[in-house]
Amino acid sequence: MEVVLLERVEKLGQMGDVVKVKNGYARNYLLPQKKALRASKENLSIFETQRAQLEAENLKRREEAEKVGEKLDGEAVVIIRAASDSQQLYGSVSTQDIAKAITAAGFTVNRKQIVLDKVLKTLGLHDIKVRLHPEVTVGVVVNIARSNEEADIQARGESVEEVAEAKLDARDEAVINVFESTAEVDVEELKEVVEGETEDEK
């Protein structure tokens, strides 16, 4: 099916381009989302009469998106999830989850604006894209962790496992120090007791 694009569509064309697409893609996505019209003579003439208005509206939306994009670009959001020791999530993080986290951070986006190259199924920092407008895409970091403490560790660029091991080592060292200091006291007390008993025997 041939359609005329009413806005820029990635990997397809710019506003005003007449392109040939699969019927299902046109019927299920482009036409219902008002991203295109069937490329009939009547629709092409309608488009040409409305082109200036459509371009002006598109420019206004793009400028608004660019303003939001300046603030949103590079933003980091935290999503807390349960995961195994191998850092695999019990489930996955969806576009809906990411959109909610970004909205909670003060930006209004919906799940359709989140661009995921792959399903997020592991803990860690994930770079994702948010399409604010067909011509404006920004990057956001999604920090998936088991707790806010782990999220802070990941945000600093440290390994959660290494920090946990360091804490265990420090705890073990403290236990050993306490044991040694207790053992020293016990040895001294034992010496005093033994020496006292020896003197009594004399």
TrEMBL record:
Pfam families in UniProt: Ribosomal_L9_C, Ribosomal_L9_N
Record keywords, A-Z: Ribonucleoprotein, Ribosomal protein, RNA-binding, rRNA-binding
Alphabetical GO biological process terms: translation
PROSITE patterns for the chain: RIBOSOMAL_L9 (PS00651)
One GO cellular component, as annotated: ribosome
Gene Ontology MF: a single term: structural constituent of ribosome
Domain annotation Ribosomal protein L9: ranges: 13-40
InterPro entries: Ribosomal_bL9 (IPR000244), Ribosomal_bL9/RNase_H1_N (IPR009027), Ribosomal_bL9_bac/chp (IPR020594), Ribosomal_bL9_C (IPR020069), Ribosomal_bL9_C_sf (IPR036791), Ribosomal_bL9_N (IPR020070), Ribosomal_bL9_N_sf (IPR036935)
Family (UniProt): Belongs to the bacterial ribosomal protein bL9 family.
Primary role: Binds to the 23S rRNA.
Name used for this protein in its record: Large ribosomal subunit protein bL9
Organism: Sneathiella chungangensis
Gene: rplI
